Amino acid sequence: MRRRVIAGNWKMYKTIADTRAFFAAFSPMVADANYCDIVVAPPFPSIAAAVESTRNTKISIAGQNVYWEKEGAFTGEVSPAMLKQAGCRYVIIGHSERRQIFGETDEMVAKKTKAALAAGLTPIVCVGETLAEREAGHTERVCEAQLSNGPGALTAEEFSRILMAYEPVWAIGTGRTATPEIAAASHRYLRQCVARRFSPELAATLRILYGGSVKPDNIQGLMAQEELDGALVGGASLDAKSFASIVSGAM
Ligand code: 13P
Predict the structure, then answer these.
(1) Could you tell me if the CB of 234 is within 6 A of ligand 1?
(2) 152 backbone φψ class: left, alpha, beta (φ>0; ψ -120 to 50)
(3) E strands along 15-167, which residues?
(4) How far is the CA of 215 from the centre of ligand 1 (A)?
(5) What is the 3-state secondary structure (H, E, C) of 123-156?
(6) Which CATH number fits the domain that encloses residue 75?
(7) Measured between alpha carbons, how far is 189 from 183 in angstroms, rounded to an integer?
(8) Judging by beta carbons within 10 Å of its beta carbon (0-12, 13-18, 19+), is residue 107 exposed, middle or buried?
(9) Domain range spanning residue 175?
(10) How many domains does the chain have?
(11) Residues 6 or more apart whose Cβ sits within 8 Å of residue 136
(12) Helix (H, G, I), strand (E, B) or coil at 14
């Protein structure tokens, strides 16, 4: 049985004050949610406030990005050890916004994932096709390439320590959620790729989150698919009540 994960990706939203106010409201709402792991990824400057606000809770904090070097002249970047020391347990890697706006490649995703693992972080590696790729019938090909050129470069032992997120780009921030069946088909396909690249055992234990317009009113339908091991939530994770209701929907 794969334990579910509900993760919130705040993207470039929430100051330190917003972060404190969010957790003051959110933490009590999910205090009894023992059935899943809860993760929140604030922007870098709000990580310390998030870690402090969630100290005596089961909520874990994630970075939204990381660089692969330990330190050096890399203006604007942060290292895995810096995130770890700041109190992060997870880090999102290869989000489609990083790929599309900031030019991240599968090779960069692979390097970031290895470095994050070496520092003791749990990477949440994102893959997913664009609308044009889906309409051209290339969904499987794109997901397979992102998987094999990204986390496919890990050793089996390393791979056993990552989570993946399937986020079809056409469903992100558009209100156009993938149907539970469409999401499940992609998750099943990714699992087949993992079985081929690594082993059926690793494919069976890998947790794959779905992301793309997850809301309180569609989480239960999505979670009814046994292929979906949780959700990576953008917009609906910014409001304490709405994110808490998504956590309840994962019961
Ligand atoms: P939305 O939930 O706002 O569609 O964003 C999804 C996402 O990109 C999470 O990483």
Answers:
(1) yes
(2) alpha
(3) 36-41, 59-63, 90-93, 122-127, 163-166
(4) 10
(5) EEEEECCCHHHHHCCCHHHHHHHHHHHCHHHCCH
(6) 3.20.20.70
(7) 10
(8) exposed
(9) 4-249
(10) 1
(11) none
(12) coil
How much is the pLDDT for 173? 87
Q: Determine the distance separating the centroid of ligand 1 and the alpha carbon of 129, expressed in angstroms.
A: 14
Q: What is the mean pLDDT of the chain?
A: 97
| Percent of the chain scoring above 70 in pLDDT | 100
Residue 95: CA count within 13 A, CB half-sphere: 21
Rounded CA-CA distance 195/59 in Å is 31
Query: What SS3 state is found at 227?
Result: coil
Give 169-224 pLDDT, tens digit per residue.
999 988 888 899 999 999 999 999 999 999 999 999 999 999 999 999 999 999 99
The protein residue whose alpha carbon is closest to atom 5 in ligand 1 is 234
Which residues have a Cβ under 8 Å from the Cβ of 102 and sit 6 or more positions away?
A: none
Tokens describing residue 223? 């979670």
Residue 214 CA, ligand 1 centroid: distance in Å? 7
- Class of residue 181 by CB neighbours under 10 A (exposed 0-12, middle 13-18, buried 19+): exposed
pTM of the model: 0.97
Closest CA to 165 of 32, 30, 41: 41
Torsion angles phi and psi, residue 164, rounded to 5: -120, 155
- Of the residues 97, 167, 187, 227, only one is catalytic, namely 167
User: Does the C-beta of 214 come closer than 6 Å to ligand 1?
Assistant: yes
